[in-house]
Design a protein that fits this description.
Elements: H1 8-19, E1 26-30, E2 53-58, H2 66-73, H3 78-87, H4 92-100, H5 113-132, E3 141-148, E4 151-158, E5 163-170, E6 183-189, H6 200-216, E7 221-228, H7 239-251, E8 254-256, H8 259-267, H9 274-280, H10 282-298
Helix pairs in contact: 3-5, 4-5, 5-6, 6-7
GO biological process, one term: DNA repair
Pfam families: Nre_C (PF04895), Nre_N (PF04894)
Organism: Thermofilum pendens
């Protein structure tokens, strides 16, 4: 990672533009004409033609909030700055930009965009989870669903202490599976909040769910299924995962009184056979084992 303080005038212009809440007019000089190509990435938004930059000058006035400017000047840990700005209502995408441009933190280092996106989701998710530790669980089983540009999100929220699992199903002939059978990938975490693997998509889902639970002042165990269909022919970035889950949670739930009923509701929304999800899910196996133990002790 490049230290922002030693990067010169070009970096300063980039940082000023990143700090601004509104787009800033600028003039740029390139070393050679932009290459006419479009690049796709599973984490980042599509990138258009690009070229090495020679000079960059801002010709508009950046709109920088006073507290943001103070945090950019102070030697404050990036995690603390992110939480403070989030609590003051600043958009998560603005925070990603601030971190990536090296405006936050003690060392003020530029951060690769994909790292910044996942870092913001993780920092804010961990913060929200900490606030929920002593909150009561939700009362019912809740099933949510949404679909966006070839990605289908089905979530089951269960009335238990926090834990979470993502089951990601890449359907045949989708962007990562050109043919053959569907590929299934899982990440899970227990009550300690430590995921079994580092995954940007998982962190995007986790943040969106914790954001909603924080608004309600409740905790839950969460099973999130993402199905990537052939309609998703080119990756557009993690933002669609975050917004897809947010959209599902905004729609409101179908409620159930038992886990089996919730699974039946979810099965009607899934393209993947229910048995495939159940067999792959670490979370469901653990919950069913706990239920069996509880029934045995009550007998």
């Amino acid at each position: 990672m490049l230290h922002a303080r030693s990067a010169g005038k070009l970096a300063q212009a980039v940082q000023e533009a990143a700090l601004s809440l509104r787009p800033v007019d600028s003039e740029a000089t390139f070393r050679k004409p932009p290459t006419p190509r479009i690049a796709f990435d599973p984490l980042l938004k599509p990138v258009g033609p690009s070229a090495p930059l020679e000079h960059l000058r801002l010709v508009g006035n950046p709109v920088i909030p006073r507290r943001v400017d103070q945090l950019a000047l102070d030697k404050v840990k990036a995690s603390r700055a992110l939480v403070e700005l989030y609590e003051h209502g600043y958009d998560v995408y603005y925070l990603q930009r601030l971190l990536s441009a090296g405006t936050l933190g003690v060392e003020k280092r530029f951060v690769p965009t994909r790292w910044a996106i996942t870092a913001v989701d993780k920092v804010l998710g961990d913060y929200l989870l900490g606030k929920l530790r002593d909150k009561p669980p939700i009362q019912d089983y809740e099933v949510y669903h949404s679909s966006y540009i070839g990605n289908r999100y089905t979530l089951i929220l269960m009335p238990r202490a926090w834990s979470m699992e993502m089951v990601e199903v890449w359907m045949p002939y989708s962007v990562w599976v050109p043919e053959g059978q569907a590929q299934v990938y899982t990440v899970h975490e227990e009550h300690d909040g430590k995921p079994s693997a580092e995954d940007g998509g998982y962190q995007a889902i986790r943040f969106a769910v914790l954001e909603e639970l924080s608004k309600r002042g409740k905790q839950a165990s969460v099973l999130a299924v993402r199905e990537t269909t052939p309609e998703y022919f080119a990756p557009v970035g993690n933002w669609q995962i975050r917004e897809g889950v947010r959209n599902a949670l905004r729609k409101g739930p179908a409620k159930a009184s038992t886990l089996e009923e919730a699974l039946e509701v979810a099965a009607r929304l899934l393209l993947t056979p229910r048995r495939e999800i159940v067999d792959r899910s670490v979370l469901l196996r653990r919950l069913r084992a706990q239920r069996g133990l509880e029934e045995f002790l009550e007998a």
